[in-house]
Amino acid sequence: MASTKQEDKRPLSPHLQIYKPQMTTVMSIFHRLTGIALALGTIMVTWFFLAVAMGPESYATFRDFAVHPIGQFMLFGWSAALFYHMFNGIRHFFWDMGYLFKIKNAYRAGAVVLLVTVIVTGALWAYVWGLI
Question: b or e along 70-98 (b: 16 or more beta carbons within 10 Å of the residue's beta carbon)?
Fold first, then answer.
């Protein structure tokens, strides 16, 4: 069957040039990215446990890296990813139970996830750096 000129102008499938990203879409993408970050960051957590088990010299090596700005950045990112992934997972759990499907509620829940992630991550690092 031959296609008409009208059909040739339409995209074959929806793509980013057609659809504006929505909060739920962006948060879904970040949920996946934070899952990857958690998997990679777990290597550092494993290093910590191995260093503790192997003795003072190994622990000192780990500690030197962990207090370095690069180590602090990695630990901060890992903890932010952990909290975001956890709170967004709780939001998904509510969806699984059939709640928060209205657009207004989905956006509010997304905003709560972001806000609580910032608050909890900030509180943890304020404690770590001795600010509270």
Answer: eeeebbeebbbbbbbbebbeebbeeeeee
Predicted TM-score of the model (pTM) = 0.81
Which of 30, 23, 15, 14 has the alpha carbon at shortest distance from 87? 30
Q: What is the mean pLDDT of residues 10-31?
A: 80
pLDDT tens-place string over residues 49-65:
999 999 999 999 999 99
DSSP code string of 40-84: HHHHHHHHHHHHHHH-HHHHHHHHHHHHSHHHHHHHHHHHHHHHH
